[in-house]
Amino acid sequence: MFRATIAKKPRIAFANRAAFSTTARAMTEGATGAPPKTGGPGDAFQRRERAQEDYAIRQREKEKLLELRKKLDEQQMHLKQLADHIDEITKDQGGEQN
Questions:
Q1: What pLDDT, in 10s, does the model give residues 14-70?
Q2: 18-50: buried (b, 16+ CB within 10 Å) or exposed (e) per residue?
């Protein structure tokens, strides 16, 4: 009889534990449960977060553009040096066009 009692307890405990199981809530991106109050796309936290992300993206794009502009200036300076060098070589050759 003692053996039968022990065998039944784990089944009951397992059955009770299964009754209290929870599932993960499925939420869409940015769904905090707060409706847009001022006509914007969500609550103040969402708007602030989006503004900070947009600002960070604009800063990175600005830095990239500055780097590209610097590289472009260096390339143009190099091309000007090459053109000047070509002009010097062609002046020494003479001819009707020079």
A1: 555 555 556 666 656 555 555 555 555 678 999 999 999 999 999 999 999 999 999
A2: eeeeeeeeeeeeeeeeeeeeeeeebbeebeeee
